[in-house]
Amino acid sequence: MNQNVGIISTGVYIPDTYINSKEIAKKTNIPEDVIKNKFGIIKKPIPGEDDHTCKMGINAANKAIKSIGLDPLDIDLVIWAGAEHKEYPMWTASIKLQHEIGAKKAWAFDLALRCGTMIMAMKVAKDMLLANKSMDTALIGSGYRNGDLIDYDNPKVSFMYNLGAGGAAVILEKNTDKNLLLEASAINDGSLSETVVVPAGGTKKELTKKALSNDEHHLDVKDGEFMKERLNQVSIENFVNVVKRSVHSSGYKMSDIDYIAILHMKYSAHKFMLEQLGLSESNTIYLNEYGHIGQNDQIISLDLALKQKKVKPGDLVVFVSAGIGYAWNALTIRWG
C-alpha cells in the first residue's frame, strides 16, 4: 500500500502589539511611502512582554492541537523549526515545546535552516513518519522574533527592516487522504554563508562589554557589495528553480499551481518572482500587514488563504522560502 503524509492541522500565533509604517519611517529616516510601497510594510507584529520565541511556537502548537481535538500523547515526533534567537543560547527548544504541549511519548529535536526551516522540517518529518512503523503523527513548531537583532540605524540591514514576530505550527499524519505533502526541492549557495551574521557571541568573537558597546550583538552585513551582486545573479533564478523542481517532481506543471505561499520580501521582488513563475497576485497573498516572520511565513500565508477561500479542495499549493546563508527551498502540497 502506498503511504502518504498530509497536513491535518495548522496553528498561527501573532502578537497583539504592532509597529506601523509611520513608526518605522521615524526610526529609519526613510519616507513612509517608501516603507509602504517599496519595503511592503503597512505594519508588522512585534513581541509583547511574554512573547518569547519558543513560547510563541508553543502557543501556535496548542492552537493546532485544540482545533482538531488531538490527544498530545498521540504525537510521535516533535520538531522545533523556529529561530535560533530564542529564550536562551545553547538550548534545545523542541524539548520545552514537547513538554509544554504534553507530547510525552514523542521524539524531539531542533532543526535550523534559517527562514527555510519550516519547509525543511516538513520534508524531514514526512520522511521520518514513512520510515518508522511506530510513528504516525508529527508536530512542527516555530517561533520567531529576529527583529530584536535589527538596528534601525544601520542602513546595511535595511532589507531586514521587515522582520516581525510570531509563531506557527503544523501537524502531519501518516496514511491520511487529505492535504498531501508531495515533493520538496532545495538549492544552497555557501558563498553567501557568512555575509549576514551577528558578529559577536560565537567562537570567533566573544560577547564582551566592548562588543556590546560596538553594537556587535545585532545582525550585520559583512560584505554587502558582494552579497548584492551575488543575489542579483542567482536569487530569483533559484526561487524559480526550486519551485519548478518541486512541482515537476510531484508530477505537475507550473500552470497547475493554484496558490503559492511566499515569504515576505520587498514588493518589486515579490511581483517579479510571480511574473517569472507565470503567476499573478490572485495566486498568493502579500504579507504587508505581517512583514517577514521567518520560517512562519508559509503557514501564515496558508492560514490567511484558507480564511479568504483562496485555497480550495483539489488545489495545488506550493510553499517557497529562502534562508540567509543562502538556502532556497520549496514544497508542493495537494490540498483537500
Overview of this structure, please?
With 336 residues, the chain is α/β, with parallel strands linked by helices. The chain folds into two domains: 173 residues, Thiolase/Chalcone synthase (Peroxisomal Thiolase, Chain A, domain 1); 153 residues, Peroxisomal Thiolase, Chain A, domain 1. Helix content is 32%, strand content 22%. It is built from nine helices and 13 strands. Strand 4, helix 4 and strand 5 form a beta-alpha-beta unit. Helix 3 packs parallel to helix 4 and helix 7 runs parallel beside helix 8. The chain is globular, with a radius of gyration of 19 Å. The chain starts with a strand and ends with a strand.
> What fraction strand?
15-25%
CATH architectural type of the largest domain = 3-Layer(aba) Sandwich
Widest sheet: strand order?
A: 1-7-6-4-5
The CATH fourth-level homologous superfamily of the largest domain: Thiolase/Chalcone synthase
Q: Count the helices. How many? A: 9
Average predicted confidence as pLDDT: 96
Q: What is the count of distinct domains?
A: 2
What overall form do the CA principal axes indicate? Answer: globular
Taken in chain order, the helices and strands follow as EEHHEHEHEHEEEEHEHEHHEE
The fold-level CATH name of the largest domain is Peroxisomal Thiolase, Chain A, domain 1
Number of strands: 13
